[in-house]
């Protein structure tokens, strides 16, 4: 068995972030060959990734970047808050965000295939997960085009990275109001920009639900159509951004706030870690 030097152990640990015992064992198995030891450690990590595949990754962070007239928002997930604030995980998120935004990816699938120094984001995440020792996944990706953007990243815990992220694309000059709308979105969690974007099947499902509720309440049959339409409209005002009551003044809708500020919201994305 080759004699393993402290210097080689230190070199590998700094490069890969692996534990002292695992690093020493890999070097011994590789007869002191650094490259072979790296291969051994990565293979061990890959096996660990397979074992972790079914675990829940409910922690992590959101991050955003603007590149070439568009803004990308990602959610990178891990298993524990300890890893979420780890330097290696934060560095990984920066590389992933840079690659995904440079590629202009609009889906997770496209984001995973983005290039990072000759390898894909998917491969990079797998390699880093093997080293960090937790399941890591790119859970959400959105890229918005627009004239202007406001990004709002909210920390739910001061000791952790941002866990709620919002991007608002808009036209107009009132950046302050656009940012306020981004903050509203982080709180109110709309699902659609306009009523026209709500899929017909979503509306019909809600209509069926409120119809059953209204009948079970014993409402008069003649009054049911008006009651049902009123409840469907109330639902739409909850899920459609421009129809939501403004968080800072519930007498105004978001559309009224935007119109008064001379801006037009053209799109938005919102991610919450673990949601």
From TrEMBL:
The keyword Protein biosynthesis applies. The keyword Protein biosynthesis applies. It comes from the Bacteria. Keywords: Cytoplasm, Elongation factor, Protein biosynthesis. Gene3D superfamilies: 1.10.286.20, DNA helicase RuvA subunit, C-terminal domain, Elongation factor Ts, dimerisation domain. One of its GO terms (molecular function) is translation elongation factor activity. GO terms for cellular component: cytoplasm. Residues 80-83 are annotated as: Involved in Mg(2+) ion dislocation from EF-Tu. It is found in: Cytoplasm. Residues 72-274 form the Translation elongation factor EFTs/EF1B dimerisation domain. NCBIfam families: tsf. HAMAP family: EF_Ts (MF_00050). Belongs to the EF-Ts family. Associates with the EF-Tu.GDP complex and induces the exchange of GDP to GTP. It remains bound to the aminoacyl-tRNA.EF-Tu.GTP complex up to the GTP hydrolysis stage on the ribosome. This is Elongation factor Ts. It comes from Microbacterium sorbitolivorans. The gene is tsf.
């Amino acid at each position: 068995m080759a004699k393993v030097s402290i210097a080689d152990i230190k070199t590998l640990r700094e490069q890969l972030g692996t534990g002292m015992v695992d690093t020493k064992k890999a070097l011994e198995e590789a007869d002191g060959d650094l490259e072979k030891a790296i291969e051994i450690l990565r293979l061990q990590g890959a096996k660990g990734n397979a074992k972790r595949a079914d675990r829940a990754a409910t922690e992590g962070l959101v991050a955003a970047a603007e590149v070439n007239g568009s803004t990308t928002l990602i959610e990178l997930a891990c298993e524990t808050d300890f890893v979420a604030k780890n330097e290696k995980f934060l560095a990984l998120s920066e590389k992933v965000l840079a690659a995904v935004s440079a590629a202009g990816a609009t889906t997770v699938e496209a984001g995973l295939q983005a290039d990072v120094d000759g390898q894909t984001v998917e491969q990079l995440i797998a390699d880093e997960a093997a080293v960090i020792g937790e399941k890591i996944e790119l859970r959400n990706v959105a890229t918005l085009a627009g004239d202007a953007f406001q990004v709002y990243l909210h920390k739910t815990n001061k000791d952790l990275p941002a866990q709620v992220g919002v991007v608002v694309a808009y036209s107009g000059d009132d950046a302050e109001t656009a940012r306020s709308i981004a903050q509203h979105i982080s709180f109110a969690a709309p699902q659609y920009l306009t009523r026209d974007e709500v899929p017909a099947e979503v509306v019909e499902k809600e209509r069926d639900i409120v119809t059953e509720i209204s009948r079970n309440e014993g409402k008069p049959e003649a009054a049911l159509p008006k009651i049902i339409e009123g409840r469907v409209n109330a639902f739409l005002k909850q899920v459609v951004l421009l129809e939501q009551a403004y968080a800072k003044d519930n007498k105004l809708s978001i559309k009224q706030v935007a119109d008064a500020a001379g801006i037009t919201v053209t799109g938005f994305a919102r991610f919450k870690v673990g949601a």
